[in-house]
Amino acid sequence: MKYIIVVGDGMADYPIPSLADKTPLEYARTPIMDEMAKVSEIGLVQTIPDGMSPGSDTANLSVIGYDPEKYYSGRSPLEALSIGVDMKPTDVSFRCNIVTLSEKEDAYEEQTILDHSSGEISTKDAAVLLKAVKEELEPVYKDYHFYTGTSYRELAIWENGKVLPLTPPHDILGKVIGGYLPEDEALRSMMKASYDILKDHPINLRRKKQGLNPANSLWFWGAGTRPALSSFEEKYHRKGVMISAVDLLKGIAVGAGLKNISIKGATGGLETDYEGKAQAAVKALLMKGYDFAYIHVEAPDEMGHQGSLVRKIQAIEYLDYRVLRNLKMAFDASGEPVRILVLPDHPTPIAKRTHVSDPVPYMLYDSSRPIKNTCRYNEREAKAGGIYVAKGHTLIDHLFEE
């Protein structure tokens, strides 16, 4: 038996009036999910523990079987693992997004945050911008060090630092930033300085001419200390791989001892290489002797943050036809039995453009033990079915149970 978890990040949503009160998952054309649902278990799972923030960090830890209340030490430390930063016990890490501010006001505090991802800026351009910031700031703020991540997702380390409460940029899109800036003077000053460095950088002048969002400020959030995850293989007695374009997921894999498989065309955006992710999982499971694959698709979440309903529906349809279809075809042809767990990590509703803590629908498909079912896979029918998993980190036990 082989095992696969397919995460459509942020895929769950609320009913939308323009879709006749359907959610994007209900409305999307998903023939493969519909086919699988007829022989699968459909239910709801609470991936975010009560009182914890509904981040992709806590949610994916939960989905992969690690209780966030026990293992979570912050988002950015997991990304540090992915980048290869060896954090000392006294280090504090921060995610520093390169964001888009409005540039219409004189005072930094009066700017409005328009885009948490600067139009999903390329890693190549983001690296050049971070280098400019690094060269200016590190000689002045000697306890801080900056590291390039993927796309807009950069990292900072504060030596002998402290964990501070900070606001995620995707939670305040369209708002004036003054009331959400860090109380810490150094962090706030570096953010202001980064704006002065970046707003007239040649890359941003070019982006504005092209009609793209400028990447004109750092935004610190997601502080944390060095994590300590136990070995996935020792915990579950399965050898596994992680397939994701996102540093957070790669960092979880490093901490858990899963093998990261990089896909050249995987971007974390809508135009990622869906087929490449599916093919990499098939190769790892059917040719390389691995038992478990975790496939993470970021696109539905990014489209939710952007408030793009059409593109979120498209991301769900791509996941269905370009990931699940390829997985199912390969395993049907091989004759190897497989269990596939499909779910979002958390909802990212179009109406809110940020994460929420509501339970999410899951579908557990077992090629060797079909369950007769009349449900489709979506939020409404998962709730109506009456199956509810209260502790998200236990759902993987259900996937692996003999």
Keywords:
single chain; 402 residues; alpha/beta; Alkaline Phosphatase, subunit A; 2 domains; eight-stranded mixed sheet; five-stranded antiparallel sheet; 13 strands; 18% strand; globular
Structure description:
The structure is a single chain. The model has no long low-confidence stretch (mean pLDDT about 95). The chain folds into 2 domains: about 1-70 and about 230-400, Alkaline Phosphatase, subunit A (3-Layer(aba) Sandwich), CATH 3.40.720.10; about 85-225, no CATH class. The longest helix has 26 residues, at about 310-335. The protein has about 400 residues and is of the alpha/beta class. It has an 8-stranded mixed β-sheet with strand order 9-8-10-1-11-12-2-13, with helices on both faces. Strands 3, 4, 5, 6 and 7 form a 5-stranded antiparallel β-sheet that branches. It starts with a strand and ends with a helix. It is built from 15 helices and 13 strands.
Write the layout of secondary structure elements.
Blueprint: E1 2-8, H1 24-27, H2 31-37, E2 40-45, H3 56-63, H4 68-71, H5 75-83, E3 92-101, E4 113-115, H6 123-137, E5 144-150, E6 153-158, H7 185-198, H8 202-209, E7 217-224, H9 232-236, E8 240-243, H10 247-256, E9 259-260, H11 274-286, E10 292-297, H12 299-306, H13 309-334, E11 338-343, E12 360-366, H14 379-385, E13 388-389, H15 395-400
Parallel strand pairs: 1-10, 1-11, 2-13, 8-9, 8-10
Antiparallel strand pairs: 2-12, 3-4, 3-6, 3-7, 5-6, 11-12
Helix pairs in contact: 5-10, 6-7, 11-13, 12-13
